[in-house]
Design a protein that fits this description.
Length: 159
């Protein structure tokens, strides 16, 4: 599990946006790949627990949507697309749980470990107390954006 990315990167309608910490997003003239490489290069080293080989020790998590491939191939995207065609967060902390072995690890840069530990202890305490859980609710009618026929047609175009 990860929270609070040190950097947010997203591409919407072919424009790449980058926001560091809580700063406002800035339009970037670099490619998505350049920004991701730069972000990884600037990530502080995380000290691993002694003798542990963990699958994630900080890095980039996110997604590439089908529309990203359209943009990469110079094909027109829908002008009404509401979701970014790519979105990533850059994380230097993570809380990992191995349910099979019943153990967990908190990973963070050494100089941030004390504050990160307090944050995660508070999050985990809130999970144990259902009265503190946020209430899920929609802010309008939930409906499909495409009809079944539109979905099938779009899927056939991808094939």
């Amino acid at each position: 599990m990860v929270t609070q990315p040190r950097r947010r990167i997203w591409q919407h309608q072919g424009q790449l946006w980058v926001a560091d910490g809580n700063q406002p997003a800035q339009l970037s003239t670099s490619s998505l790949w350049q920004v991701l490489r730069e972000s990884l290069a600037n990530l502080p080293a995380t000290q691993l627990p002694q003798g542990e080989d963990l699958p994630f020790t900080g890095g980039v998590l996110g997604y590439l949507a089908y529309d990203f491939a359209l943009a990469e191939q110079g094909l027109a995207m829908s002008a009404t697309a509401t979701w970014p065609e790519a979105a990533f967060g850059v994380y230097d902390t993570a809380f990992m749980v191995d349910h099979l072995e019943s153990c967990s690890w908190l990973l963070a840069p050494e100089d941030q470990m004390a504050s990160v530990r307090l944050q995660w202890e508070a999050r985990l305490a809130a999970v144990r107390e259902p009265a503190l859980w946020p209430v899920f609710q929609t802010h309008g009618a939930v409906q499909a954006q495409w009809s079944p026929a539109q979905y099938h047609q779009a899927f056939r175009q991808v094939e």
